[in-house]
Amino acid sequence: MRIHVPPTTSPWLDSPLRYGRISRWLHWGMGLLFVWQFTGMGLRLALGRTPLVSFFVGSHASVGLLLLLLVLVRGAWGLSQRPRRPPHGAGWLGRAAALGHGALYLLMLVVPTLALVRLYGSGRPFAWFNTLPVFGPGPKQEALMAPANAVHGPLAWTLLAL
User: Fold this and answer.
1) In this predicted structure, what is the pLDDT of residue 87?
2) CA–CA distance from 18 to each of 1, 21, 25, 86, 110 (Å)?
3) CB atoms within 10 A of CB 121
4) Rounded Cα gap, residues 52 and 41, in angstroms
5) Burial call 61-73: b when 16+ CB within 10 Å, e when fewer
């Protein structure tokens, strides 16, 4: 059930006819970060360990945490703008679009969360972009690493496919 909100003239906010600047910046900014992540992993699969691959992969965990934070911001923003947003449409196509968006958001939350739990379980310290300490060294915990080792990659490629 949608609540009627009169269209706004602010270019920053969503309207029934168009997503606002904030929504579009979050969308395309995250899109560029996902391109970075998948380019690095694709190069790693194709080339193995090389200086070029290290350039991309060296920031993989930090960019992943940034994406996790941005998806939370984007989700909160989307909920705040929900009454204003353009509708998905009617019929089965609209329902499919809504389900597809739901699957994307779920994977955008689960994939980096699994990786963060795996990194914590590895016992290695993690500093976000080598500056902000997120957690220090600790004992290795295989039980935390196993789920992400099993599904992080396949779920990430599923996210790319969606």
Assistant:
1) 87
2) 19, 9, 13, 6, 29
3) 20
4) 11
5) bbbbbbbbebbee
CB 112, CB 65: distance < 8 Å: yes
How many Cβ atoms are within 10 Å of 76's Cβ, its own excluded? 10
Strand ranges inside the chain, DSSP E: 126-128, 132-135
Counting every residue, how long is the chain?
162
Answer whether 64's CB lies under 8 Å from 119's CB. Answer: no
Q: What is the pLDDT at residue 7?
A: 53
**Confidence (pTM):** 0.90
Question: pLDDT value at position 88?
Answer: 87
10-residue block means of pLDDT along the chain (162 residues)? Answer: 61 94 98 97 95 93 98 97 90 94 97 97 97 96 96 97 95
Q: Which residues pair with 128 in a beta bridge?
A: 132
Q: How far is CA 69 from CA 44, 45, 75, 86, in A?
A: 25, 27, 10, 24
Tokens of residue 159, six digits: 């996210």
